[in-house]
Amino acid sequence: MASSERNQFRVAATSAELAHSRQQAWQLYQPAPPVTVPAFGREWQLRPGLTFTPFANAVRCTAHCAFCSEELQRYDGHQLTAKRLIDDYPAYFARLREVLHPFRAWPLGLSLSGLEATAEPQWLRELLSCLTQLEHQGVVFDEKVLYTNGSGFVHSPDLALALQDFGLTRLELSRCHDDEAVNQQIMRFNRNQPMRHNGVYATTVRWLHQHLAIKNSCILTQAGIATLPDVERYLTWAAGLGVGQVVFRELSRLEGSYLPNVFTEWIEQQRVPIEPLLAAVVPTLEAPRLGWQYTGSTLGYYYYNEHYRWQGVDVIFETSSYPALQAANATGVLQKLILHSDGTLSGDWDPDSRVLSRIAFPAPAQP
């Protein structure tokens, strides 16, 4: 089994081994010994390869996805950082420099996620400039990933050039269906967002493909992509746009760990379990579905992936567990670092949980 700082990769040699991996999934992940880093007046235990997220919410999101994780609140949660917009850029970027200073020379993955980073081009440009300056000062990002619905590229295509200059590893572009009407039912773009239309999406993807490595991200849902024929049709469509890698994600398994609301209800009603898809693609290594080739499995601390090749496209099926993520957090080892929009640096999506450092930004002015 090959290990990276973030996960472990194995290629099953037998059908029994593959079945065992599918059954145990993330439970087979073997965490590396934590590293100790002094920061903010004490020592912290960090998972090797952890990621840093400057939570993107300078403006409201340009879509309202029915599965949005920012609308979920744990029973032990306190507040949602998505409700607090970044309204003081100089203070925010000064804080960004401050919180990353103790972690210079420690390799971090950069995960640009939260709401929609491209929705406010000025903020994203300033963020990339600030992070580049920090790299010159010794901060190390060994992987840089942007998770986006792509809407901001329509009016600001130069963002692709800025990301290329920044050395973005890949751009994960969300699209939940190859039919724009079905996709809109799931992703629910604002009406003024051209990205809702397939023609605009196709033009944008072809432009991005000239400058960045693109991975399409498709959430599996009963209303959208749910069966293997659906998957193969989506892959044909994506390949026609020049996309060479696609990930199909099962909706994260909540297992009763979040307060019930319309989003948790939708997630459970729309869930497409990944196991039947995997069994249909490769029931056994000796008898894969025609055109499919198994290439390996990834074990993460709260997720499990299987990798395939299909007609020249790299395909990944992914499942994940929020309770497994919370169990890893409960060990006391920091699994990731998140700079929230109120200036709090924490090891959790909840800005009041696993706090490393807090600063009081002035409250935003009321309209």
TrEMBL record:
<dbReference type="InterPro" id="IPR013785">
    <property type="entry name" value="Aldolase_TIM"/>
</dbReference>
<dbReference type="InterPro" id="IPR058240">
    <property type="entry name" value="rSAM_sf"/>
</dbReference>
<protein>
    <recommendedName>
        <fullName>Radical SAM protein</fullName>
    </recommendedName>
</protein>
